[in-house]
Amino acid sequence: EVQIAIPIMKPTLEKVQLAGQALPPGFPAPFLFADGLSSVETLLTNIQGLLKVAVDNARVQEKQIQQEKKELKMELCRERELRESLERQLTAELQSRATIQKRLKKEKKAKRKLQEALEFESKRREQVEQALKQATSGDGLRMLNDAGIPDMEVEHNGTQHDSAAMQENRTYIKPTIMY
To answer: How far apart are the first and last CA of the chain?
Structure first.
């Protein structure tokens, strides 16, 4: 005589234990415990409900991911525009700098030429002054010609006058007169 162990069902105890559990958000309905349904059918219904919740959660998560992608793309576009703007500004600044450096170089060259011309004129003036001093001291025309100053005549009293040849060699610029 074999004894078969039949499980004793305690439907009220299971209902109380499972009914007290917190359901995940978005779960369509509480666990089903129908007296007429078998435990397998109840289990399958509960699994189906959990799958629906999982699908809904996946959709929500996908929407969040898509929104984050959009935000990141917008941020990338803003940063790209900012970078391009800064690159254009840098290019303009470099061109401006190159222009200023060229101008500075030209100005330095012009300044150097003016300085050389000033030095040359200063030396020439010193030579003329020395020649005049020597001419007034008695050496006369010979010293002026030796000093390299042609076309100058010295009168007997020691003053100088431009000769006609000197005036012909000069370029005369007539000042414009406004009427």
So the answer is: 148
Amino acid identity of residue 131, one-letter, is A
Q: Model pTM? A: 0.40
Q: Distances from the Cα of 39 to the Cαs of 10, 22, 28, 60, 94, in angstroms?
A: 12, 20, 19, 32, 81
Q: Which residue has the tokens 């790209």?
A: 80
Q: What is the pLDDT of residues 12-71, one digit of tens each?
A: 444 444 444 555 565 555 554 545 568 888 899 999 999 999 999 999 999 999 999 999
Q: How far apart are CA 126 and CA 2, in angstroms?
A: 146
